[in-house]
Automatic annotation (TrEMBL):
InterPro entries xrefs: AA_transpt_TM
Membrane-spanning parts: 50-73, 85-105, 117-148, 160-182, 211-232, 244-266, 286-306, 327-350, 356-379, 400-425
Protein name: Amino acid transporter transmembrane domain-containing protein
Membrane topology: Multi-pass membrane protein
């Protein structure tokens, strides 16, 4: 399908004309890059720490299991959108499945993800500048950058940012991996006589709160599922969605597995969080300098998605949705500003990267990439013509299992994450929120 063949009418957005933004302008390549950038960003920076807690073997098993579940979840996103063209976001799914309370179904976890993006920008700025300013200032800068970047009105317009941000993160990860491989020891490892030997473990020995927090931080790395709704909604040719999804998930899982394992193998328990600080010194500055464009792009995308959720909800059915009227612009900029302000408060209130990532993965990540997709399959297939067949029974059992796994991880993971947040506050003496302290030296 060419640009000229793009649809002029959308069940959600209404008439698409030259007088307003073109919300159906994502091609195959742009879709794949956006999918990958939605997932490869902040989550990959916490994977080596999760492996350190769980151990190499259990960590990889969890990573592969989550990759399989979320691949299925994201496939269901595409089929559900095809079956229900009027759905734009996870909020619309909630309304369809659960009635009047459905629009409040948590699709706004992306605001918390935006908070972690702002926090990662502040860590990067601290690292590059050697704590050249109060961290609270850097957090504010991260929020401002997120607001300006996310204010582009269509995903098609910000695809080029993703094509810059994805290589940026990957190059930084490759550099830090090579650096820790050739160094005598990780930056935070104690000085010892003789060659340093990594203390990586095949199987870890964590407490339950530590283990479940590590698992839900891996969930966070794969929790982009609900963000795929607006992506497929803005594709020129939605029939290419599944092909783009396969390319995305294979690439993402290989990146997570290879980078996570290598960094943990070389650093052991002295891997930094976020992982880019593991080599320390000049390499740390170089890595964060390389990664900053990627961190900024991640924050831009994850701020754009919840802003668009709210924007479409507010103006749906109105001619202002697809025009460039003052009402359109005021509403849109109001949405992006509100999202970044809330995210700024979150980033300032929970200054521990690992604690924030695991909390998002547990409390919100599971609730938007496990349970709803299983409910979506049941909604579309409960009364299907294949009801009672072996395949139908297996899929019902699978859907119930996904709901059970997601619910367990949500409840247990939230408990473990809250324990981690409390521990981080005790470590900082209760002064971590809105702090000026350097947040780039945490391990």
């Amino acid at each position: 399908m060419t640009v000229q063949d793009a649809p002029t009418h959308d069940d959600v957005l209404g008439e698409i004309t030259d007088q307003g933004p073109n919300y159906s302008n994502l091609g195959f390549l742009g879709t794949t890059v956006l999918m990958m950038k939605t997932e490869v960003g902040l989550g990959v920076l916490s994977i080596p720490t999760a492996l350190n807690i769980l151990g190499l073997a259990p960590g990889i098993l969890c990573l592969c299991a989550l990759a399989a579940i979320t691949t299925w979840s994201e496939y269901i996103v595409g089929t559900f959108k095809a079956n229900h063209p009027g759905v734009y976001a996870i909020d619309d799914v909630g309304a369809l499945l659960f009635g009047p309370l459905g629009p409040w179904y948590p699709g706004r976890d992306w605001i918390f993800v935006t908070g972690s993006g702002i926090l990662s920008i502040s860590i990067g700025l601290n690292a590059v500048s050697t704590h050249g300013a109060c961290t609270a200032v850097f957090v504010a800068i991260g929020a401002l950058v997120g607001f300006l970047g996310s204010s582009g009105r269509t995903l098609g317009r910000i695809t080029w940012l993703a094509s810059i941000g994805l290589p940026s993160i990957l190059i930084a990860l490759v550099v830090v991996t090579i650096a820790v491989g050739v160094q005598d020891s990780p930056a935070s490892a104690p000085t010892t006589r003789g060659p340093w030997v990594s203390d990586y473990q095949i199987v870890g020995d964590p407490t339950f709160p530590q283990a479940i927090s590590a698992v839900v931080s891996l969930v966070f790395a794969y929790s982009g599922s609900s963000g795929f709704f607006p992506i497929v909604s803005e594709m020129r040719n939605p029939s290419q969605y599944t092909r783009a999804l396969i390319v995305c998930k294979v690439g993402v899982t290989l990146i997570y597995g290879v980078i996570g394992c290598l960094l943990y193998y070389y650093c052991g328990s002295y891997v930094a969080s976020p992982a880019l600080g593991s080599a320390g010194g000049t390499v740390k500055k170089v890595c964060y300098g390389l990664a900053l464009p990627g961190l900024i792009v991640t924050t831009t995308i994850v701020a754009h998605i919840p802003s668009k959720f709210v924007f479409v909800h507010l103006l749906r059915g109105s001619p202002h949705l697809t025009s460039s009227s003052p009402t359109h612009w005021i509403t849109w900029l109001g949405c992006t500003l509100s999202v970044t302000l809330i995210a700024y408060i979150i980033a300032s209130a929970i200054p521990s990267f690992d604690a924030l990532v695991s909390l998002i993965g547990a409390l919100l990540g599971t609730l938007t990439c496990f349970q709803p997709m299983a409910c979506m399959w049941l909604y579309d297939n409960w009364h299907s013509g294949t009801r009672g067949s072996k395949r139908w029974c297996c899929m019902v059992a699978w859907s119930i299992l996904v709901i059970a796994i997601g619910t367990f991880l949500m409840v247990a993971g939230t408990y473990g994450s809250v324990v981690a947040v409390i521990a981080s506050y005790q470590t900082s003496g209760g002064g971590g929120a809105f702090s000026c302290a350097d947040n780039s030296n945490l391990v």
